[in-house]
């Protein structure tokens, strides 16, 4: 039986569709006021939250558009609630979820604050791959930076993801996490703002 042929055009269409639903990271430099993004057409970002370890893994994949979806390089940086400070969690009007956090300097001593970095290469390279994600993390040693991680609609599970992130950073207890997960009447995540909720509860 003849195998179906896949055109280059369909690869490009898949690439565009993947980009529209990909995780985005924007970095704000508080010292200079500059802002730049870590995502573009050549990079695919993902975020994995682990409620047991209290960790956030940021995964950066470098794609070769000519042979999409093959991965050329993969960089994984593991943060935890001790070396990345939780700032806020919001539900945006477009249905996406925005997490703001501040990584500490990677030069800070102590095993509990230590970054875990894993690099995988799927082709021969003569020099070390220059990862924009890794560079942005290590720039926190000399500059005050805030990371904004956006999970677009279609890449999260609504209130379950919000509860997952809050429990990962130990903002809520497992009991509160369970109440959010089983609650079927919470509606859409748009308009959710953890900082505003905390401010209102203190009045």
The outline comes out as: globular
What is the CA–CA distance across the termini? 71 Å
Main sheet properties: 5 strands, antiparallel
**Count of alpha and pi helical runs:** 5
Number of strands: 9
* Helix percentage: 10-25%
Structural class: alpha+beta
Note poorly predicted spans.
1-20
Strand order of the largest sheet: 2-1-9-7-6
Q: Which key phrases capture this entry?
A:
disordered N terminus, 203 residues, 23% helix, 9 strands, 5 helices, alpha+beta, five-stranded antiparallel sheet, four-stranded antiparallel sheet
Q: Would you give an account of this structure?
A:
There is one protein chain. The protein has a five-stranded antiparallel β-sheet with strand order 2-1-9-7-6, with helices on one face. It has a four-stranded antiparallel β-sheet with strand order 3-4-5-8. A hairpin with a 7-residue loop joins strand 4 and strand 5. The chain has one domain. It is α+β, with helices and mostly antiparallel strands and 203 residues long. The protein contains five helices and nine strands; from the N terminus they run αββββββββαβααα.
């Amino acid at each position: 039986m003849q195998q179906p042929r896949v055109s280059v055009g369909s690869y490009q269409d898949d690439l565009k569709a993947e980009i529209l639903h990909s995780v985005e990271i924007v970095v704000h430099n508080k010292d200079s006021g500059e802002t730049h993004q870590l995502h573009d057409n050549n990079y695919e970002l993902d975020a994995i939250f682990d409620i047991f370890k209290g960790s956030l893994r940021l995964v950066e994949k470098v794609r070769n558009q000519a042979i999409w979806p093959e991965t050329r390089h993969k960089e994984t940086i593991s943060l935890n609630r001790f070396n990345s400070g939780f700032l806020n969690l919001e539900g945006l009007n477009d249905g996406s979820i925005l997490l703001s956090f501040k990584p500490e300097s990677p030069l800070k001593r102590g095993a509990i604050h230590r970054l875990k970095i894993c690099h995988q290469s799927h082709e021969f390279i003569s020099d070390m791959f220059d990862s924009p994600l890794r560079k942005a993390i290590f720039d926190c040693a000399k500059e005050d930076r805030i990371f904004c991680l956006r999970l677009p609609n279609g890449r999260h599970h609504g209130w379950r993801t919000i509860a997952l992130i809050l429990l990962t950073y130990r903002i809520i207890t497992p009991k509160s996490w369970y109440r959010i997960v089983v609650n079927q009447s919470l509606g859409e995540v748009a308009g959710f703002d953890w900082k505003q909720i905390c401010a209102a509860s203190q009045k």
